[in-house]
Design a protein that fits this description.
Blueprint lengths: L2 E2 L5 E2 L4 E4 L8 H11 L6 E4 L5 E8 L5 H4 L1 H17 L6 E3 L4 E4 L2 E9 L13 E8 L26 H22 L1 H12 L14 E2 L4 E2 L2
């Protein structure tokens, strides 16, 4: 069952959405981390950015496991992002993930995922919150000639017909399913579902954004 909320999004009822105002500074990731740190009831909040050149999503999670285990939520989120792109994109082009948390569409960078938790939380402690965030490049028109940025691509260039809101809604459904399957099957199941996109089972991706996020641009590296 999905419900419409005040943002106009159709989301599973476990999520509440917050759409950032047009022109708001910062990213959905930054806003979600701030909410998680200030509000004990922020779990389930899905923050959506409004920049026209990006699909920008972040969700606050309430882990029950020590950080060493809870970090697997990042892999579940990254898998959900890849499943979302794969379900809406042209079927003849591969969707893959790399060890830096970047999502590649037909071998070009389309976006990526990040995972955050309270500063100073030790691996053996249960974090008060986690934030998984994801970005996709919706358009590169601001960058000028796409030939100048051949390492990246965009939803527009690749012929995606789904709107940004449709991708957010799809991501929420894939994430909820991934979290449920992780709860049922444990870490091996979560790793197995990611393996189809990663091509390897060697460790978790590094989800600090350093491998794909451009802090100056406030989005994926072009």
């Amino acid at each position: 069952m999905t419900l419409a909320d005040s943002s106009g999004l159709l989301l599973p009822p476990v999520f509440r959405s917050l759409r950032l105002p047009a022109g708001a500074a910062g990213t959905a990731h930054e806003r979600a981390c701030a909410l998680a740190g200030d509000d004990d009831e922020a779990a389930g909040m899905l923050v959506v950015g409004t920049r026209p050149d990006l699909v920008d999503i972040a969700v606050v999670l309430a882990p029950k496991e020590p950080l060493a285990v809870a970090r697997l939520a990042g892999l579940v989120g990254l898998t959900a992002l890849a499943e979302t792109v794969g379900s809406h994109g042209p079927p003849d082009k591969p969707v893959t993930l790399d060890g830096a948390g970047a999502l590649l569409f037909d071998r070009a960078r389309l976006g990526g995922g990040r995972l955050a938790w309270p500063e100073g939380c030790r691996d053996e402690a249960v974090p008060d919150w986690l934030v998984f965030s994801a970005m996709l490049i919706a358009s590169k028109r601001e960058a000028g000639d796409p030939g100048h940025t051949p390492d990246s691509t965009s939803l527009e260039e690749e012929g995606f017909e789904a709107t940004g809101d449709a991708l957010v809604e799809s991501f929420a459904r894939h994430l909820l399913r991934g979290l449920a399957l992780w709860a049922e099957d444990g870490p091996p199941g979560a790793r197995a579902r990611a393996r189809g996109f990663l091509g390897t089972d060697a460790g978790l991706p590094v989800l600090d954004g350093a491998g794909w996020f451009d802090p100056v641009r406030g989005g994926p590296r072009l």
